[in-house]
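User: I'm curious whether this sequence folds into something compact or stays loose and floppy. Could you predict its structure so I can see for myself?
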Amino acid sequence: MASIVKRIISRLREMRLPRVSVKPPAIVTIVLLIAISIFLLAGGVYNIMMSPPIIGYSYGLQDQSWFESIVAIILFAVGFAGVFVSYKSTRYAYKPRQAAMLLLIGVALLLTSFIGCQYIFLLKKIAVELTVTGLHFLVLVALLMAFLYVLYEKERSA
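Assistant: Here's the prediction. I'll summarize afterward.
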């Protein structure tokens, strides 16, 4: 039995199989790293390990519900988008109007993210339930982003 296994192993070593290497595109790797970072910063590991309630009160600043984590993930993603758009504005050095518009949109997204995080912390600090007020805030953020996008497209087409 052992000789059969040795013979199979030796024949497999002798075979010349083509080497296949699959390398993911750099953008996929970067997006995955950013998504993992945002997930970790928003408390994803805590939610997986502690399995808190989905929606409801958290009885102190050290607890976090799933809904709070999702809101934090969205706000961190909006903040990262603001930094990215601000960075992209530097590519339009010879189009100052477009560069200024992109920079304005990026700063607005970053400020929206920062103010949103502070707002969520304030709600948590004064022990107000996040479900209704948080949803209103997310709708406000979505409307602000849509307005900024329409403004950007209008300036871009002009």
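Summary: The two ends are 79 Å apart (CA to CA). The chain has one domain: 24-157.
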